[in-house]
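Researcher: Please generate the 3D structure of the following complex. Treat every line as part of one assembly.
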Amino acid sequence: MSELALYPVGLFFVLSSAHFSRSRIDSRAAARFTCYGTALLGAALLVLAPPTVRAVQGTGVALLAVPVIVLGDGLRDGAAAAMRLLAPALRAADAGPAAGHGSPVAEPVRREVRGGLALLAGVLGLRLALITAAAPGLAGEDLTVGPEVSARLALAGYTAVGMLHTAVCLTALLRELARRARAVGPGRLGTGLRLLTGALVAGLLWNAWSMDDVLRAAVTGSQDGPEDLLCAVLGGLCAALIAAGLASTLWPAAAGAVRGWLLAHRRYRALTPLWRDLHTVLPEIALDPARRLPLPPRDPRFALYRRIIEIHDARLILRQHLDPRTAQWLERAARRFPPPSAHAAATAEAATLAAALELAAAGTRPGPGPAAPAAAPAVSVADSTDTMDGEADHLAHLARVYATCPAVAEVRTRARAERARAERALAERARAGAAPL
Amino acid sequence: MAEQLELPRPFDPVVLLEQLAVRRGRPIELLPVPARPHAPCGLLVSTLEADYILYAADTGVLHQRHILVHEIAHLLLDHAGSAPLAPAAALLPSLSPALVQRVLGRTGYDEPQEREAELLASLILSRADRADAADRPGTGAGTARGSLDALGVLLAAGPPPGEPAREPGSGTREPGGGAPEGRP
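Model: Done. Output below.
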């Protein structure tokens, strides 16, 4: 089972590479080297995983197993070289667009890239020569050479050259990332860069583990062929640190999304008492009449928007039920339960709505009173805002006052009593009208 | 449709209306009116030559905007008129009933056309609200919106453009003095 551990790590790097290839990183060279580095490393891990090597051995052409291991090592050398070349590419990007062809910044960078590629070619050539000289075979999962000292030294040299090259390359990128982390200082970007730096340190440890193979090859003439479990663990740690580093810049967006969801949900719930009363009397305001379950909405922002609009629609409908006596009832109620001055406007609006709702529930409209305006506004247009958040906060304040203010409750009770009296009078009139029949 | 529609940024229903009028090759006139009892709070009246959108002007700004976009949604969905002419005739006394080709009024959602227009208006305005919120200053700066941006943000973080590379240990910058976080 543990032998399969390299596959997810390898796949992580291969998929990351495919993902990064679509990146809009300013520096195309940096994007390219990042892609190459992750792709080659992922491919190397998939090739060097013990089950892959065993599968090649099982094909009946056992001789192929050694070239496959050499191929995996070569891919890893390529990955290391790409990572090394990422460092000058980043420095060139720092110099800005001026670092184009012919600029004084671009030339040393190009020289460094050419040097890196030449070094890679030299390392690959040398390793190929050494492994050819060693002529190893695969005994179990170990690369094994004959008893000659030259063969043992060639095998040890093959591994040592790869290890040194990788160490040089990773150290170059490590220095560059550490420099950038220091320049950025504390904060999430600094944290992200430090995590990437940590990934490179894990990579160096992973690489240093090859020293064991160098010593074994020199002393016993054999070494691990494919990658072992410790390599998988260090590779996994490296991948995890890279993922964590990248995620560090996503935290604010993720936290903002969660905060926005919670805020929208809280506002949505804050409007519930007012909306529920309005909807009970005026069910036609709801666009989605089927929504009755007390479950949180899947998209609270959309649900909040609908709730705001439906409350406004109800307020417009209730205008025909405004009772001109509400102002008097409120004046008396406010003498008994004076509302805080900060809530005065909301209290007047909530009391007007509460009284109008009672009339609307009875299906009656007030007669023209002594001071009845033709269409008293139940909406304080001056208080309204053009943003959804502002409107939600305004209505949430209104809903809170509507549900908790004692003066509003008293107006509601008074309107309810008036409504009962009106209903009784209607019933009596109906009885009186029906009596002759 | 709400996701494909090109919305003005920042969102302005009047700009959207102008764009629609140009696209349709017909003028669309906006007529703010006071809300009346038992009358729709928004009306779309189409004649041979123009479309008229009447909307309640004595309600909240957000609500006015919604009513307006509801009527725009009828135009986008190319709904046929089904509302009675009477409310429109009361609000547009100079309009000859013979010229009127369609009337749609925002009252309830029993009519499928009204439900569709209301849903589309809600989706359009929710999307506009999200876009406007994202464009507001102070939101999203230095914040990657996905892992692709994340790599760019991280790799671009460092000394500002033009600053010569320094060797490790050659000095440090004050916290927060690095490159702007949103540079990519």
